[in-house]
Design a protein that fits this description.
Shape: globular
InterPro entries: DNA_pol3_alpha_NTPase_dom, DNA_pol3_finger, DnaE2/DnaE/PolC, DNAPol_HHH, PHP_dom, Pol/His_phosphatase_N, Pol/histidinol_Pase-like
Keywords: DNA replication, DNA-directed DNA polymerase, Nucleotidyltransferase, Transferase
Catalytic activity: DNA(n) + a 2'-deoxyribonucleoside 5'-triphosphate = DNA(n+1) + diphosphate
Protein name: DNA-directed DNA polymerase
Number of helices: 38
Enzyme class: transferase
Oligomer: single chain
Low-confidence stretches: none
Distance between the termini: 66 Å
Helix content: 25-40%
Structural class: alpha/beta
């Protein structure tokens, strides 16, 4: 009897999860159920699985609405019917085709119209839905002859009075209005909840035709779907047979290129992998990925193939990845094995500048009907929940800000706020909107609308209505097409070196992108600012603690920095064992045999699987569950407990004591959700090394590229500082030298117009284009004639020094600009055939103070360029100790003056603490620790210079200063406002700092880790 059930995937309408909906139906003994969410099929696949668990027959449908008005309910007779409705919705969502008031000619769909939208004539497959409360309307003449085409319509939207109120709140949020202003048409009826089926039939007992029609629809519909059938594109060539031939040919060509003609080990491994790939029908998957990479190479783009795909020698030979799995002992089974229940995926990164080109190629090459992005469900988040619910109740903006920004315990406790809390909690985990998966692309064998309607987000690529987990359940596996700025930096640096120096660098040449002596020296001292993945304070500290001077240690470091390894205490233990390899014994011989490279510590996902199998005796299938548990998918982590039972039983059979088993599983469990596979770490390490090589040998080109790719961990100021430390002469933007992006001329770096946030991108581009076409600007007047620009923008350019080539002071240029702009209207500006000489304005001499330029720079770009922040301090004191000497002061108290670069919030058992990163007056970096007791009295007060008093702690070659006291040092007053005392310190507030907030658990101390350093008996 239930032809129209909504889950909460009817966004901002339904209040029931799929599980709740099915659970309630099961409790009432309902045997058949139709899920018809509004304009979406997001939940139908989970719905089918949930129903079958409860012995309920599932039927799939869609409620078609236009501008919040119900047109009809479409119920699929069989699965192909869903595809018919998907196609109509896709045309509407992606091509703007209007939804018609009546249903088109569906073949495998029953259509049910509400009583408010009955067409003149009903087709054979079309019916009218009549609600229980509408039965009294059937006495009307216009309905009497239609009773034989009616069905019971009992929509389900909520289950309790509280949920009905929640539905109204969701509707208010959807309409951006108050609950009190909702009309009846905007909300569901109070009857839209489950009732015992017998009561419903009793209400309709005078109309047997209506009951029979309803039963007929439920009987004739089915939802057959084989979750085991692979739905990815099945062949790259015309057939699977020719796919196998092509993949083999490409693999052996690549084998010769990578290893030469006589590498037997590599050859055997290629043969073994090709057989598994063929047995599992993955040839097309490899070939499609190879095809995309081939296009990328043809276009001159740089890519990185990472993740578990780098475990495959075939992917290495095809050029998909650049990691030799033999060199690093990476085993293929981590990527693909006959016991794997789900297919793997390749993770491939491109520069953020090139990714859209790659996506366009995929959609064009494989057909827009067969390609889509995975969707994601964006849930209501803490801040948005309270803000949105509060807005629906009519709270003013100030209260909404308080609700969003303050912790719950600090909220006002009035009656409305209590309701906001009550309903806000109910909305946790509710989907709020559908969005695009960051990188997952689906390439289907059948038209993708067979499975889902598509939506078109602002970015311009169609998205499926389900997420990656549902796609995986359906065997519609994604390709991960990712982007990152690190590759853009590497690519741009190589291009800049070629342009400036005429040197061509093959950055993929492993002889220069691994184990290069000077690079290793930089690694060991953490001199890695700007380098992909290894520039953060935490990573630089780790590199120094490890004295990391080789590629293999860098691979390990890339993994042990991850939260799972660090929070379990394994990172600290790894550092100890790396520095003291003779001061520990292996926990058990299996650990020594399989984890010798990492000192008996599980660092990679592969290590966990090895221990599970060789120590615990687990099967490959259980090993695969462990792999999935460690991939961070919540549904897999829940399965970890199943493995635990098997692990303990198996360990008992292996003869291990319960104490030993408990300790081994504790180490395994600590990894769930956060560890890297070794190939992933290795791929990251190669890219880190590539960027480090460029930083070492071409530092100015590298830093310019970092700035143009909008940096990484730090703000632009830090990369400019780094360039200056490498010998650059950094210049402010100049209309006769600068481009939109930052450029390098010899050792001079001209900052790009992009650093001027108030300058329109279009104007910035016109300035350089006009200069290229018609030559340098001769004067301010000449510039104003040629560029359509207003006084505010001219002022910004003058204040930043962009007209310094004129030799005139800024004050004089400002007066001149105002006089000129009186005479020149934008529409009349152009270069005259015979350009008249510029007017020579005779103005009184206007003097400027020494540091006025620096304060102009702070105001416009956030930091000084023409001097150091230390030059702007009132004090001449620069500290008693400098970074270069810190290692000599272990356990000593020091007083230092430093400029704040960044700070990271870290929770501890005693409250919040911070780690700070600073530079001293010599420009060298150092780190500080600020514990809760110190922060209580001496808090951070924004960007700027501070006087620090603390004790130096040298931890494995890495000095950190534990701060006891600190004070922000006053800067000189802004000389531009010498006659306006109120404004003399306004611009100081614009000095920036980088703040990162984390909510991770505190890392354990050495005594808390308690990892055995002796062999267990």
């Amino acid at each position: 009897m239930y032809l129209n059930c909504h889950s909460y995937h009817s966004l901002r309408y339904g209040t029931l999860s799929v599980q709740n909906l099915v659970e309630q139906a099961s409790e009432l003994g309902i045997k058949t159920l139709v899920l018809s969410d509004i304009n979406t099929v997001t939940a139908i696949y989970d719905f089918k699985k949930e129903c079958e668990k409860k012995g309920i027959k599932p039927i799939a449908g869609i409620e078609v609405r236009k501008e919040n008005r119900l047109l009809y309910i479409a119920i699929a007779k069989e699965f192909s019917g869903i595809g018919e409705v998907n196609k109509i919705l896709t045309e509407h969502n992606c091509d703007g085709v209007e939804l018609s008031e009546t249903a088109p000619n569906y073949n495998q769909v029953f259509v049910i119209y509400p009583i408010q939208n009955i067409p003149e004539t009903l087709k054979e497959n079309e019916f009218i839905g009549i609600r229980e409360e509408e039965l009294n309307l059937l006495i009307r003449p216009e309905f009497k002859d239609k009773i034989n085409k009616m069905v019971v319509l009992q929509p389900i939207t909520f289950s309790t009075k509280k949920e009905y109120n929640l539905h109204r709140i969701l509707r208010a949020i959807d309409g951006n209005t108050l609950i009190s202003k909702l009309s009846e048409d905007e909300i569901c009826r109070k009857s839209e909840h489950f009732k015992p089926e017998i009561n419903l039939i009793k209400s309709f007992e005078q109309y047997l035709a209506i009951i029979n029609n309803t039963k007929k629809i439920l009987a004739e519909c089915s939802f057959e779907f084989d979750f085991k059938k692979v739905r990815n594109k099945q062949s790259y060539t015309k057939s699977k047979k020719t796919d196998v031939k092509m993949l083999s040919r490409l693999a052996y060509l690549g084998l010769k290129k990578r290893y030469g003609s006589n590498h037997e080990e590599a050859k055997k491994r290629v043969e073994k992998e090709l057989k598994v790939i063929d047995d599992l029908n993955f040839c097309s998957y490899f070939l499609i990925t190879w095809d995309i990479v081939r296009y990328s190479n043809r276009m001159g783009f740089m890519h990185v193939g990472r993740g578990s795909g780098a475990n495959s020698i075939v992917s290495y030979c095809l050029g998909i990845t650049d990691i030799c799995p033999i060199e690093l002992d990476l085993y293929f089974e981590r990527f693909l094995n006959l016991n794997r229940k789900s297919p793997p995926d390749f993770d491939i990164d491109w520069s953020w500048q090139n990714r859209d080109d790659i996506l366009m190629y995929i959609f064009k090459r494989y057909g827009k009907d067969y390609v889509a992005f995975c969707g994601t469900n964006v849930e209501f988040k803490y801040k948005s929940i309270f803000r949105e619910v509060g807005k629906a109740f009519g709270l003013p903006k100030e209260e909404l800000d308080d609700l969003a920004e303050k912790p719950m315990e600090n909220h006002d406790r009035n009656s409305i706020v209590k309701l906001v809390h009550q309903y806000g909690k109910l909305m946790e985990k509710f989907p709020n909107q559908r969005s695009m998966h960051a990188c997952g692309i689906l390439i289907s064998e059948e038209p993708i609308t067979n499975f889902t309607a598509l939506e078109m987000p602002p970015k311009g690529f169609p998205i499926a209505q389900f997420d990656m987990d549902v796609a995986e359940d359906m065997r519609l596996e994604k390709l991960d097409i990712l982007s990152q700025r690190g590759l853009g930096t590497i690519n741009d640096t190589v291009e800049l070196i070629k342009k400036n120096r005429g040197i061509e660098i093959d950055i993929r040449d492993t002889s220069i992108s691994k184990d290069e002596s000077v690079c290793n020296e930089y690694l060991a001292i953490g001199k890695t600012i700007g380098c992909f993945y290894i520039e953060s304070p935490a990573m630089r500290g780790l590199l120094r603690r490890l004295k990391c001077d080789n590629y293999r240690t860098l691979v390990a470091a890339s993994s042990i920095i991850r939260p799972g390894v660090a929070q379990s205490g394994m990172m600290r233990e790894y550092i100890f064992r790396h520095n003291h390899p003779n001061q520990f014994e292996y926990f058990h011989p299996v650990f020594e045999e399989n984890l010798k490279e990492t000192y008996g510590i599980m660092v990679y996902q592969e290590d966990v699987i090895k221990i599970a199998q060789y120590f615990g005796g687990l099967s490959h299938a259980d090993g695969d569950i462990l792999r999935r548990a460690m991939s961070g998918k919540e549904r897999s982590i829940q399965k970890l407990n199943e493995v635990k039972v098997n692990f303990f039983e198996s360990c008992k059979k292996e003869g291990h004591s319960e104490q030993m088993t408990t300790e081994a599983f504790r180490q395994i469990q600590s990894f769930a959700g956060y560890s890297f596979c070794k190939a992933h770490s290795a791929s990251y390490a190669v890219e880190s090394y590539q960027s480090l090589y460029l930083k070492v040998y071409y530092p100015l080109e590298f830093m310019v590229s970092v700035i143009n790719n909008q940096g990484g961990f730090y703000r632009t100021e830090v990369y400019i500082h780094e360039a200056r430390m490498s010998g650059a002469d950094v210049q402010n933007p100049c209309v006769n030298n600068s481009e939109y992006q930052t450029i390098l001329k010899g050792k001079e770096i001209y900052l790009g117009f992009m650093v001027l946030q108030s300058l329109e991108t279009k104007i910035a581009q016109i300035i350089s284009e006009e200069r290229e076409k018609n030559g340098d600007y001769k004067s301010l007047e000449n510039f104003i004639k040629r560029i359509p620009i207003g006084i505010e923008t001219i002022q910004t350019l003058i204040f930043i020094g962009a007209f310094r080539f004129t030799g005139k002071p800024k004050n004089e240029l400002l007066v001149e600009a105002r006089l000129l702009l009186i005479n020149y209207k934008i529409e009349n500006r152009s270069i005259a055939l015979f350009d008249e000489p510029a007017n020579d304005f005779k103005l009184p001499e206007l003097k400027r103070e020494q540091f006025e330029d620096a304060f102009d720079e702070v105001e416009i770009i956030g930091f000084p360029v023409s001097c150091s922040p230390f030059d702007l301090l009132q004090t001449k004191f620069r500290g008693n100790v400098f970074v270069k000497d810190l290692l000599k002061f272990h356990k000593s108290q020091v007083k230092m003056l430093a400029y704040l670069i960044s700070r990271k919030h870290v929770p501890t058992k005693k409250g919040a603490m911070f780690f700070g990163t600073w530079v001293d007056v010599n420009g060298d970096y150092f780190d500080t620790a600020h514990f809760p007791d110190s922060l209580e009295k001496y808090q951070f007060q924004g960007g700027g210079c501070y006087l620090l008093l603390g004790t130096v702690e040298v931890d494995y070659h890495f000095p950190t200063i534990t701060i006891h006291k600190m004070a922000k040092m006053p800067m000189i007053p802004d000389p531009r406002y010498a006659y306006d005392k109120e404004k003399q310190y306004d611009v100081h507030k614009q000095i920036r700092e980088d703040v990162s907030m984390t909510s991770r658990k505190p890392y354990p101390q050495a005594h808390e880790i308690n990892l055995p350093r002796q062999k267990f008996n």
